[in-house]
Amino acid sequence: MTRSNAYRTLIATICLVLAAPAVAKMYKWTDNEGNIHYSQIPPEGREAREIAAPPKVRPQQAEEPAQDKTAQPEGEESAKEPELTPEQQAEREQLYRRNCDAAQKNLKLFQNARRIMENGELVIITEEDRAKRLESTREQIEKYCNP
């Protein structure tokens, strides 16, 4: 066998060995205490159900946020808001006040400064980033300062 054929055979063997776990079977079974287990080897003396491997996620899918099917359309949020106890209402008002104060401080910062501390480092922000942050901060002020 020539050297190039030996390399081809070696590479093909390595590929086959590495691909074997990708097609391994998965089993789901329950123990005596009712705990659910997943394994590649079915347990002896127990009933195990073979399950399909979860679908692979493409990088584009991983970056897309999942759509919440239970989310309410905009404008209906306040209509179905649960009733709060007086203690919960007081905590919520205090949280809103703190968020409002923080948003107002951020607004002043983004209006006046071009450099900000981010993760402990001084960062110069671009005009585009600054505009986005200003818009986000104004939305937070609208939400927390004018409930």
TrEMBL record:
For this UniProt record, give its keywords in alphabetical order, as a comma-separated list: Signal
Look up the signal peptide feature and give its range.
1-24
Query: Quick one: where's region Disordered?
Result: 38-97
Matching Pfam families? DUF4124
According to the entry, every stretch annotated as the DUF4124 domain falls at 15-66
Q: Where is the composition biased (Basic and acidic residues)?
A: 77-97
Q: What is this protein called?
A: DUF4124 domain-containing protein
Question: Which species does the entry assign this protein to?
Answer: Thiohalomonas denitrificans
Write the lineage as a comma-separated list. Answer: Bacteria, Pseudomonadati, Pseudomonadota, Gammaproteobacteria, Thiohalomonadales
